[in-house]
């Protein structure tokens, strides 16, 4: 199990437990974390599960692949730490991961 | 605006997999259908969101992509000659004696005895960038589509985005407008290579002004845009003058005008009974992801089941004097005739 912390725009935090193998998006949806719409259900086709990965975790989560980078064009307020949470697979190495949720997913 | 009036038994709102299969089930009981969809092709979410993604839970197909499933359904419903009306959204529904009149946003009108709402997650609509105050500019100086190119003639236009829509409109509008600025967050474009090349050539010749960055603020008065603030790739912001902005951030699903048809809703879903899949309004059915009932699962296979039961219930509205006898396609010669296999 890996603990993931989601921080909302207003600073409120939610810590959820995620099983290795699932995606960060799935962990959010399963626990009804607000602000992760995931309209397409994880097909990397909608850019509504956009998160900002905490600086300390950027190396561990890696960089977006081409498809994800393309889809990030459809998200808003993209920063260097922007990722689509449906493309981050939970592993034991990500225990403690911290991500921030944008003000709006659209 | 088209003044055409189409008379038919059934109108299916939404041409996703469930809307398509409804044509089949309605066809078996001699109900003719027209389909209306906001997208430009059949398949709904399957072809719009994940045409290449494998689906593993369609019975008898161990694996099928969204596009393949759509193609197979189109083949299956061919014998019933349903007509498709793409690129339009049903805006209004009026009640007539024994039916309805529907009007699309393109002005096409339909008179029908029953309506089947198979609209999935809702109507695909352009995403609205969460820029403060953007609502006030919409349809005045912020546009998500081009209905008339003439309205852009001689104006300063700013297009935001790097996909096919953004580039297509950059190329189409550039000869007409006074100036065209394209703003995109990176120097790569996920659009047809030919469009990218044409656009880059226009940037090279100075006919298109390309700016790397993201729009963060809008400035103007009474809905008329004067300029936008752009945060450049270096993090520095600058102001870009423009009269018109067109953001292209893809599509999202919204329930849309269905909400105004007088049908009972439950959190943007349409409650139905599980015998007929009829809504709170007689003669209006709802099948697929858009409906809700105890135990509902948003699965394509559930939508197929719902379509079959809906068609049985719909029969009495279209043929009030005929008794419907349930038949199997494997053995019924009359069904086989309809399918064109006998």
Q: What does the main sheet of chain B amount to?
A: 6 strands, mixed
Number of strands of chain B: 21
Alpha-carbon Rg of chain A, integer: 12 Å
CATH architecture of the largest domain in chain B, please?
3-Layer(bba) Sandwich
Element order of chain B: H for helix, E for strand: EEHEHEEHEEEEEEEHEHEEEEEEEEHH
User: Number of helix segments of chain B?
Assistant: 7
The largest beta-sheet of chain A arranges its strands as 2-1-5-3-4
DSSP, total strands of chain A: 5
Identify the CATH class of the largest domain in chain B. Alpha Beta
Using the coordinates above, name the CATH class of chain A: Alpha Beta
- What Rg of chain B do the Cα atoms give? 23 Å
CATH superfamily of chain A: Beta-grasp domain
* Overall number of structural domains of chain A: 1
What sequence of helices (H) and strands (E) makes up the elements of chain A? EEHEHHEE
**CATH superfamily of the largest domain in chain B, called what?**
FAD/NAD(P)-binding domain
CATH topology of the largest domain in chain B: FAD/NAD(P)-binding domain
Catalogue the unreliable spans of chain A. none
Largest sheet of chain A: 5 strands, mixed
Oligomer: heterodimer
Bulk shape of chain B:
elongated
């Amino acid at each position: 199990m890996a603990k993931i912390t989601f921080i909302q725009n207003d600073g409120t935090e939610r810590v959820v437990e995620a099983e290795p193998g699932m995606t960060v998006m799935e962990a959010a949806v399963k626990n009804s974390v607000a602000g992760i719409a995931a309209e397409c259900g994880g097909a990397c086709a909608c850019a509504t599960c956009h998160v900002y990965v905490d600086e300390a975790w950027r190396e561990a989560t890696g960089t977006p692949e081409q498809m994800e980078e393309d889809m990030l064009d459809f998200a808003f307020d993209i920063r260097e730490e922007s990722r689509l949470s449906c493309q981050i697979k939970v592993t034991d190495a990500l225990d403690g991961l911290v991500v921030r949720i944008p003000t709006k997913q659209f | 605006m088209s003044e055409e009036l189409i008379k038919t038994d059934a109108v299916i709102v939404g041409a996703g997999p469930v809307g398509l299969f409804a044509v089949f089930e309605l066809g078996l009981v001699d109900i003719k259908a027209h389909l209306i969809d906001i997208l430009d092709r059949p398949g709904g979410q399957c072809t719009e969101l994940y045409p290449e993604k494998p689906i593993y839970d369609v019975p008898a197909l161990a694996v099928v992509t969204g596009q393949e499933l759509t193609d197979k359904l189109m083949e299956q419903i061919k014998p019933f000659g349903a007509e498709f009306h793409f690129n339009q959204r049903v805006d209004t529904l009026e009640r007539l004696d024994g039916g309805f009149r529907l009007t699309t946003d393109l002005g096409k009108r339909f008179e029908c005895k029953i309506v089947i709402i198979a609209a999935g997650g809702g109507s695909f609509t352009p995403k609205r960038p969460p820029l403060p105050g953007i609502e006030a500019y919409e349809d005045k100086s912020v546009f998500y589509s081009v209905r008339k190119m003439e309205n852009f003639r001689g104006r300063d236009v700013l297009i935001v985005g790097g996909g096919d829509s953004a580039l297509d409109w950059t190329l189409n509008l550039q000869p007409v407008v006074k100036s065209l600025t394209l703003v995109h967050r990176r120097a790569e474009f996920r659009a047809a290579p030919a469009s990218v090349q044409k656009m880059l050539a226009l940037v090279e010749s100075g006919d298109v002004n390309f700016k790397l960055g993201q729009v963060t603020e809008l400035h103007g008065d009474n809905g008329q845009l004067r300029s936008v603030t752009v945060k450049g790739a270096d993090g520095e912001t600058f102001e870009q003058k423009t009269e018109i902005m067109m953001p292209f951030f893809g599509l999202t699903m919204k329930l849309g005008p269905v909400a105004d048809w007088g049908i009972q809703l439950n959190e943007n879903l349409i409650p139905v009974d599980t015998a007929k899949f009829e809504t709170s309004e007689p003669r209006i059915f709802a099948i697929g992801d858009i409906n809700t009932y105890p135990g509902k699962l948003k699965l394509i296979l559930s939508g197929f089941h719902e379509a079959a039961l809906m068609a049985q219930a719909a029969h009495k509205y279209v043929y009030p004097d005929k008794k419907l006898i349930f038949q199997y396609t494997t053995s019924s010669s009359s069904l086989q005739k309809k399918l064109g296999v006998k």
